[in-house]
Specification:
184 residues; alpha+beta
């Protein structure tokens, strides 16, 4: 019997091997993201399984993906957002998956600039597409606002089509928050 870390790595190798189809690669990426995010495997276990396969197709890409998920990118959109928006020049330092205690329970912010109390949420349809999810997001934003947080929400469409505008808005809000805090 093969353990889950090795199965995930073997699946990666099959998907990225000769003639890797886009759908197979997406499935392999999803398996890595989901198993790490849901703590079914530890990143160290995946790295160990990768080390046992030095000729693994897409080896460097897999290790980078594991590092991104381990660092707090819990979806393809969050990975894309880090690579193309949040890590851009002139962007403020941020933390991923910052825990915040709210009256109704703890939440994790996709990205945050804690000293300015700016939360950045990257909203994909998978987790934010139905009315119940939208209601949950509104209640969460209100609770965060009551604690002094400004929440910036960016949809998949906006992030991928207007990354420069998203970066500009984040910088503007952070500058305004910094000025506000300096006046106090």
């Amino acid at each position: 019997m093969t353990g889950l870390p090795r199965a995930v790595v073997d699946s990666w190798g099959l998907a990225l091997g000769a003639g890797g189809r886009v759908r197979d690669i997406e499935t392999a990426r999803s398996a890595v993201i989901t198993t790490v995010r849901e703590r079914q495997v530890r990143p160290a276990e995946l790295r160990s399984a990768v080390a046992a396969r030095p000729a693994l197709p897409g080896r460097a890409e897999l290790l980078r993906l594991v590092t991104m998920v381990e660092g707090g990118s819990h979806s393809e959109l969050e990975i894309w957002g880090v690579d193309h928006v949040l890590d851009g020049p002139g962007m403020p330092r941020y933390e991923r998956q910052l825990p915040v205690a709210l009256p109704h329970g703890n939440v994790r912010l996709d990205a945050a600039v804690p000293h300015l109390r700016v939360a950045i949420e990257l909203d994909g349809a998978a987790f934010h597409g139905d009315p119940a999810a939208r209601e949950r997001d509104i209640r969460r934003d209100v609770a965060l606002a009551a604690l002094g947080w400004v929440v910036l929400r960016f949809s998949y469409r906006r992030l991928t089509r207007e990354p420069d505008a998203c970066r500009r808005e984040i910088r503007q809000v952070c500058a305004a928050r910094r000025a506000l805090l300096d006046r106090r």
